[in-house]
Design a protein that fits this description.
This protein is mainly alpha-helical. Helices cover about 65% and strands about 5% of the residues. It has 3 domains: about 70 residues; about 35 residues; about 90 residues, Orthogonal Bundle (Arc Repressor Mutant, subunit A). The protein has 9 helices and 3 strands; from the N terminus they run H-H-H-H-H-H-H-E-H-H-E-E. It has a 3-stranded antiparallel sheet with strand order 1-3-2. Helix 7 crosses helix 9. InterPro entries: DASH_Dam1.
């Protein structure tokens, strides 16, 4: 008979040699509980640490959600501020048109004050001449004929002066365009085409009627003194009504060709080029 052979075994690893059973029954821990009982306090501590880790991860998740909400809200605010800056003009300082309007307003006030003083002096002189003194009362009847003749001549002179002044007033109100040479017309047409080429597509030919209205508005601004007008001065019914004029002016203001001012209480549109 062959002697019994011992089966070969794989050598225990270092971790296996320090197994739980060996640790529980080793001489280093003589009071250790039998079996796996000594793992209870270790597992309890491990459970506490795991719960703490879970709470920390939950806090991190809530912080991430809060940051995501804040980022979305802040991004919306920045987008709205950007759109507002692109669609709204905020004039931080007076332009050249503001100083020009202020100077013209001061001149108009000075002229109005001078006319008021002259009218007051004329009224005082007229009242003084209509009140005769005691020494001149006896000669009043002798001068009646002369006074009537003078009054008639004054009336005729006043009528003639009024008639002479009427064409000038009519010319100012209508704002008749001065005649231009062929060279000036060509230069104006080139400048007008240059302005319209920078406007939105609807003014560049997609709508011929709208392009015609835009040309009328631009020429109306150019033909006024100092190239400054009010909105009613550009209205020419029935084709060029207030709504169409306002639409053309909005396009010109957005492209910086026209400056809109309200320093005098009245909205004025000045050509900026």
């Amino acid at each position: 008979m062959h002697p019994p052979t011992t089966p070969s075994r794989t050598p225990l690893r270092r971790v296996s040699q320090g197994s739980l059973f060996r640790l529980s029954r080793s001489g280093a821990y003589p009071n250790a509980p039998h079996g796996l009982g000594f793992m209870e306090p270790a597992m309890s501590e491990f459970l506490d640490e795991t719960e703490t880790l879970h709470n920390n991860l939950e806090g991190m998740r809530q912080l991430s959600d809060s940051l995501a909400t804040f980022n979305e809200s802040f991004a919306s605010l920045l987008h709205v501020m950007n759109m507002n800056s692109l669609t709204t003009d905020w004039l931080q300082a007076p332009t050249d048109a503001s100083f020009f309007l202020m100077k013209r307003r001061a001149e108009e006030k000075a002229l109005a004050a001078l006319e008021a003083i002259r009218a007051k002096e004329a009224a005082a002189a007229k009242a003084k001449s209509m009140t005769p003194s005691t020494s001149d009362a006896s000669n009043l009847r002798d001068q009646t004929g002369i006074t009537e003749v003078a009054s008639t001549s004054d009336v005729k002179a006043g009528e003639s002066s009024t008639a002479a002044a009427k064409p000038v007033t009519k010319k100012v109100v209508k704002g008749k365009k001065p005649k231009m040479t062929a060279k000036e017309k060509k230069e104006r047409g080139m400048e007008l085409e240059k302005v319209i080429s920078n406007l939105p597509l609807e003014f560049r030919g997609s709508e011929p009627t709208l392009r015609k209205h835009m040309e009328s508005v631009i020429e109306g601004i150019w033909d006024t003194p100092n190239k400054t007008v009010k909105l009613p001065e550009l209205i020419k019914p029935p084709d060029l009504n207030q709504a169409r004029v306002n639409k053309c002016l909005i396009a010109l203001v957005n492209k910086k060709f026209v400056v809109k001012g309200n320093t005098t209480g009245t909205v004025l549109y000045s050509w900026n080029g």
